[in-house]
Amino acid sequence: MADVTAGLYLIVPIKPLHLAKSRLLGAAGRGAAHADLVTAVALDTVTAARRAAGVAGVVVVTSDPTLTETFAAEGVEVLPDTPAAGLNAALRHGDAQLRRRGIATRIGALQADLPALRPAELAAAIAAAGDDRSFCPDRHGTGTTLLLAERGGPLAPLFGPGSADAHADSGAKTLLGQWDSLRCDVDTEADLAAAAALGLGPHTARRVS
After folding, report:
1. What is the DSSP string of 49-112?
2. Is 63 annotated as a binding residue?
3. For the whole model, what pTM was predicted?
4. What top-tier enzyme class does this entry carry (predicted)?
């Protein structure tokens, strides 16, 4: 079992459900059905990440009460997104909170939309990063699914359009191994189909079956 007092902690930021994954509307219906799908995708992502070798802990950052209750029931720590100023602000907030505690020797950011994520593939990417600031681009090559700070260094997230280039320009090492599930983030129905071809986690599979 991973040491819970030191090591790599992954921060997973999630928008409020009424704002999250608007391009997935229709994949499982609207309203409550859409919120359930977004929640299921996030649950499969976090569950897989918690099982990956080399991950000491996963912390969700969100201001959504339903997500907060759901993850707390799973034993996942949830930090309120008090900046409420977007993805990078949420990640910087989580980074600051963890660094203040002094329990994490390294901090990373993981996107919440990886429903096919395999723990072994995440572990392999972490191992390939070594101690370097590193990132894994999404399957399109433009976005970022995983960002790892260098050991002891700040996260300094640069998510947004063209984040892969932004992280590369910041000096981060590009991680390009055989870990398709780590690169398969889900923004559209086509992305969800690609994730389904890899094998969805159980929560997502129940929502799209």
Report:
1. HHTSTTEEEEEEE---HHHHHHHHHTT-EEE---S-S-HHHHHHHHHHHHHHHT--SEEEEE-S
2. no
3. 0.92
4. transferase
